[in-house]
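Reviewers of the previous submission asked for a worked example of the structure-prediction workflow described in the proposal, so we include one complete record here. The input consisted solely of the amino acid sequence. No template or homolog information was supplied to the procedure at any stage.
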Amino acid sequence: MFKNVPIITALVTPFTTEDEVDYPALDALIERMLGEGVTGFLVAGTTGESPNLTHAEKIALFTHVGELLKGKNAVQVANVGTNSTAASAALAKELVPSPASTPCLRSHLTTTSQARRG
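From that input alone, the workflow returned the following structure tokens.
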């Protein structure tokens, strides 16, 4: 449909009936979108259940998607934003450098205090 236009989509995070990340369903979703021309994925945004994911789940999700995208013409935007500036900054630092997420872009940190200064 679109030619030579980068398309980055917010990725949903599928879950199993046991409330675990459903990695096979996630892989199928990513492969389908890559086949349709998507060139990047926002991982663990609010569409991807970021407020409900644990720190460990986020790291595992970023690592998994990064590994899946290796060698493909696609990028991962790892949402590190939380309600805590310190936690967001720590998560961003933990991911840099991340060999599993090549290339891996980091989302900007938006906090309540930054929004007030706006």
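The first helix runs from residue 23 to 35. We consider this example representative of the routine output the project will generate in years two and three.
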